[in-house]
């Protein structure tokens, strides 16, 4: 047994003995598939929070900052974003002048003492519709400032705004991460998707905040502003059902402002890294798309060598995160693929052992909703991610929870990533409950067409579902699925062990035990990037069996030692 494996195993055993709770590890997989059906005592959805709710209303005056948010830039720098002024909506709107107010951040390591000051940029955007009866929108002034020279694992106090007016925010605080290193990790990483702005969304954020994350991954579909007409009113679960005569997929942009205010108490102190989903497409005049997403968020695209906020990467301690875009070109001949290949090539696994990727629509999904919708993307990119030994993949889009066994190309594979779907943030479209393997629930090959990109639906060529579009039972690569709203927490413990916990919303009202929990274990000795493409061949299976046998021997030795130790204490 190698030294890292032995160390990790001792850590896992010690943790189990101290806590008294057995949490499975991926070393014990693949697991027999488990399905937890929707609890009929719960509501499948809830109404959106109204715009006159105190959490969504503007509560500052004049040019004072609001909607303050953080995002990582580099290990020693941070993006600070905020909004000033008043947005406009109506038949005729006039854009504000972004040069009319400065973009400043004051920051330092002592409360009330700001030793550094930085200036940044400001901009506005418009959402315009050339159709009679539809309202246009132009945003308030959106500011982005990059503050640098930050020391690792240090608390910083900051204010933002324009000191000449004067219109500076109240003081806020954040803590920087450790520098990239194989033994330094963020404390807790929250993962949420398809959040929206409903009563369920509020429960999700309240629950997540109680878990005290140091970083948030938001895997697409943020505000669901496009579930409204431009004139506002009431949001709906199905836009095309409620508004079949709408000339375009309208969007009520003030929901973005309400969402920014709703999230500010959390994301003004905890950096949030977002990636686009289909609800961020928001088509408008002249074929313009994604305007809100591209304007409102400052992300480390340039810092990571990307030319677009649609895909980028960043480090947080010993974890390298790659955020990919499913609604831009992902073909192997395109710019995103070339960038991804180069980014993967530059990753040093001795510095950032963990490699985590995220994008909005899942590749592996056993729910009827969005079944095989992004099969084209999987076929283009999966081999590359597998070759470089990606450890975990997070996605949303499907409004339920699902964790996979390690899988590659629809085949159980000890070196494949752990794919996890967390599109259960609480949005207005309700939780998904139907599974494609249930009688009468298999979609047709004409269903689940992506808004952007090709269609590559296929019948399985091997295994129990050979020749069929859907399985007749829960697929073997689906380890655990449950129809419920919630969020996930990833705690990276060392270079080979990470604890994944999925928390259901309803558990906030009773004993707060995770709905799903597992140690995700890296095995760099048998699944290094140089060997991953070998797949599940015989030599790998032999090596894996040998490691498992050694682990079992060590486990028995430690259990015996622990019993002897307890007996000595009794004496």
From TrEMBL:
Residues 65-176 form the Purple acid phosphatase N-terminal domain. It comes from Gossypium mustelinum (Cotton). Residues 1-20 form the signal peptide. InterPro entries: Calcineurin-like_PHP, Metallo-depent_PP-like, MPP_PAP, PAPs-like, PAPs_C, PAPs_N, Purple_acid_Pase-like_N. It comes from the Eukaryota. This is Purple acid phosphatase. GO terms for molecular function: acid phosphatase activity; metal ion binding. Residues 469-508 form the Purple acid phosphatase C-terminal domain. Keywords: Glycoprotein, Hydrolase, Iron, Signal, Zinc. Its EC number is 3.1.3.2. Belongs to the metallophosphoesterase superfamily. Purple acid phosphatase family. It catalyses: a phosphate monoester + H2O = an alcohol + phosphate. It is an enzyme of class 3 (hydrolase). Pfam families: Metallophos (PF00149), Metallophos_C (PF14008), Pur_ac_phosph_N (PF16656).
């Amino acid at each position: 047994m190698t030294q890292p494996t032995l160390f990790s195993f001792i850590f896992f055993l010690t943790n189990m003995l101290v806590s008294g709770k057995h949490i499975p590890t991926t070393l014990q997989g693949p697991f027999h598939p488990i399905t937890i059906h929707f609890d009929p005592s719960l509501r499948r959805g809830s109404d959106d929070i109204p715009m006159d709710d105190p959490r969504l209303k503007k509560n500052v005056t004049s040019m004072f900052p609001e909607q303050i948010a953080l995002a990582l830039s580099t290990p020693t720098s941070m993006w600070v974003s905020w909004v000033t002024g008043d947005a406009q909506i109506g038949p005729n709107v006039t854009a504000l002048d972004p040069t009319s107010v400065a973009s400043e951040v004051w920051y330092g390591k002592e409360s009330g003492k700001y030793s550094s000051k930085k200036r940044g940029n400001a901009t506005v955007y418009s959402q315009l519709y050339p159709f009679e009866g539809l309202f246009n929108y132009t945003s308030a002034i959106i500011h982005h400032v990059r503050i640098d020279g930050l020391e690792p694992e240090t608390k910083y106090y900051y204010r933002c705004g324009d000191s000449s007016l004067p219109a500076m925010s109240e003081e806020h605080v954040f803590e920087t991460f450790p520098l990239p290193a194989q033994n330094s990790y963020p404390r807790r990483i929250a993962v949420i998707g398809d959040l929206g702005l409903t009563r369920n969304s509020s429960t999700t954020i309240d629950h997540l905040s109680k878990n005290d994350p140091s970083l948030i991954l938001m895997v697409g579909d943020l505000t669901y502003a496009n579930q409204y007409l431009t004139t506002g009113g009431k949001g709906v679960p199905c836009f095309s059902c409620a508004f079949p005569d709408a000339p375009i997929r309208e969007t009520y942009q003030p929901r973005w402002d309400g969402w920014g205010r709703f999230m500010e108490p959390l994301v003004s102190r905890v950096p949030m890294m977002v990636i686009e989903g289909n609800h961020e497409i928001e088509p408008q005049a002249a074929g313009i798309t994604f305007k809100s997403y591209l304007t409102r968020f400052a992300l480390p695209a340039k810092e990571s060598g990307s030319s677009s906020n649609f895909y980028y990467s960043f480090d947080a301690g010993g974890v390298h995160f790659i955020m990919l875009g499913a609604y831009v070109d992902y073909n192997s001949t395109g710019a995103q693929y070339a960038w991804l290949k180069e980014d993967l090539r530059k990753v040093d696994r001795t510095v950032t052992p963990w490699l985590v990727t995220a994008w909005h629509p899942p590749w592996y999904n056993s729910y009827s909703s969005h079944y095989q919708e992004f099969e084209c993307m999987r076929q283009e990119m999966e081999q590359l991610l597998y070759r470089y030994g990606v450890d975990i993949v997070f996605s949303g889009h499907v409004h339920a929870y699902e964790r996979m066994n390690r899988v590659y190309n629809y085949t159980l594979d000890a070196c494949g990533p752990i794919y996890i779907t967390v599109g259960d943030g609480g949005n207005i479209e309700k939780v998904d409950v139907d599974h494609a393997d249930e009688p009468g629930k298999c979609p047709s090959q004409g269903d689940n067409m992506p808004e952007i990109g090709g269609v590559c639906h296929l019948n399985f060529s091997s295994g129990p579902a050979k020749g069929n579009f859907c399985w007749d039972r829960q697929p073997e690569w689906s380890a655990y699925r449950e129809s419920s709203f919630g969020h996930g927490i990833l705690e990276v413990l060392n270079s080979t062990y990470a604890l994944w916990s999925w928390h259901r919303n309803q558990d906030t009202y009773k004993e707060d035990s995770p709905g799903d929990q597992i140690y995700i274990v890296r095995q760099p000795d048998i699944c290094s990037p140089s060997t991953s493409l070998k797949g599940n061949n015989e030599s790998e299976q032999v090596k894996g069996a040998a490691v498992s046998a050694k682990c079992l021997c060590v486990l028995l030795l430690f259990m015996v030692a622990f019993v002897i130790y307890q007996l000595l204490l009794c004496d």
